[in-house]
Specification:
The protein has strands spanning 2-6, 9-12, 17-24, 33-38, 45-50, 57-59, 67-72, 77-82, 91-97, 102-103, 107-112. It is mainly beta. It is globular and about 40 Å long.
Length: 113
């Protein structure tokens, strides 16, 4: 099982980024995948979920209406489209497969005010 995040970077407040989580070693279509983020000194925070089989999305209140989680099961990819980014969105973003609690290595997102 492997998850690899990419797409992070430095953007100005109000900008957009799309993160990708490349998965391998398991059936993505039946798997629930979550995005988390972490900033220094804070606990890792849940951001969004895509439920296996249905793809139903769920979002933290702090990102609702700004972030969109999606998946391409054929390409074994999960995306996190982030719009209208705010300084407080800064952090290392991780994707995780719920079953077995597998994590990627994270990708840094930095928002300049």
């Amino acid at each position: 099982v492997r998850l690899v995040e990419s797409g992070g970077g430095l953007v100005q407040s109000g900008g957009s980024l799309r993160l990708s989580c490349a998965t391998s070693g398991f059936d993505l279509a039946s798997s629930t995948i979550k995005w988390f983020r972490q900033t220094p000194g804070k606990e890792r925070e849940w951001v969004a979920t895509t439920i296996g089989i249905t793809g139903t999305p769920y979002y933290a209140d702090s990102v609702e209406d700004r972030f969109t989680i999606s998946r391409d099961n054929a390409k074994s990819l999960v995306y996190l489209q982030m719009n209208n980014l705010k300084f407080e969105d800064t952090g290392v973003y991780y994707c995780r497969r719920d079953r077995g609690n597998y994590w990627g290595q994270g990708t840094q997102v930095t928002i300049s005010s």
